[in-house]
Amino acid sequence: MTGDFFGSETMTRPQLQPPDQSLASRFRPNSLETFFGQEHILGPGKLLLRLIESNRITALLFHGPPGTGKTTLAHIIARKGEDHFVLLNGVESSVADIRKCVDQAKQLWNSSKRKTLALVDEVHRFNKSQQDALLPHVEEGWIRLIGATTENPYFSLTSALLSRMQLFEFLPLTENEIVALLNRALEDQLKGLGKYQVEAEPEALIHLAKVCEGDARKALNALEVGIMTTNTFSEKQAIAFTLEIAEESIQKKAIIYDIQGDQHYDTISAFIKSIRASEPDAALYWLAKMLQAGEEIRFIARRLTILAAEDIGLADPQGLILANACQASIECIGMPEARIILAETTVYLATAPKSNRSYAALESVLSDLSKERTLGVPKALRDSHYPGAKKRGHGKGYQYPHDYPNAIAPGPFIENLKKYYEPTNNGYEKIIKERLIKWDKSKQHQDFNP
Which of 39, 123, 202, 428 could form a disulfide with 147 if both were Cys (CB 3.0 to 4.6 A apart)? Predict the structure, then answer.
């Protein structure tokens, strides 16, 4: 089986460390007291803390971005309890590994009444068969389970497994928490960088905290790279960790973006809502984030087209035309130049007058159709071109608009029909509104004898 099997007694012994173990690995907290962040679930009186302290864990799921402490906390829980600890990995472990884990858990319980705690790291990598293999054993209590994932569990895990787990979301660490963690690493002489005389500029640590996106692992590793590659190490010579070195150490800011998960949906939502709110700067920010993260440009263009019809509508009919042109253009051009077309379309739609009245009118009609009796087509409007149609009265009384001044027939075409479309005073739709008002007055005063 992949992963290690070990009891709590072996966990208290000094562990051998690889010679090139990174600072983030060496400096991993081993107790709740040294754990950083996640006060919303680990603060005094919070459910997760109560579960840990009372040793009442059955099945937990930790989900959140990388470097927020999911796996670390699972190890801390294992150390705190007296259970046999098993580490599985969603990438490498198979159904056979799960069965072997359960068999050993049963043997251990029968021989010594000790329970088994299994940590499944990257549990979202388990397919349906692997997830189903866990279900009966978790439900029967042979193993206590902690799953850790960076994915949205509602997308990546089966509903059956989710229903048996208590979910806890891990949030990115705050800038203050990252800075405090980095300072502690600089002071710690055993696991950290305390044996080196480091003079770190506050601005340098703040920079790492900002650009690491709440990922403690990324911040710690950048700090180590910056310090270990600066100057020749001497007990008498201090190492200056400056803002310039910090910028070089972390290089490019990481964009947290999962194409199939939360960030994909949340970012496109923010993008569309920014355009709808007529905020071009915000819309361009979210567009840039999606492009930087490698989002599918066709997806972005499709959403712009939908927005043009839904939120801009007849206030600016050119919006839909431009959005369609954008879709066609990016197919021909592709990245990186396609970003120019997407930016132009985004700014145009964000700064266009807005109206959703045509869309809202349709939704209102559909709602009425689902609740009320459907109206029949009046005989005057029915097709009268096929043989026998006129004998049935089809087309009788139809008022041909072009026989009347300004091509406005007296109507109404449907008696007592509710008014659905109410144009706004925004953009071109104001012209439509004035036109409809003029036509209504014309119908009231005009002689409609053709």
Answer: 123
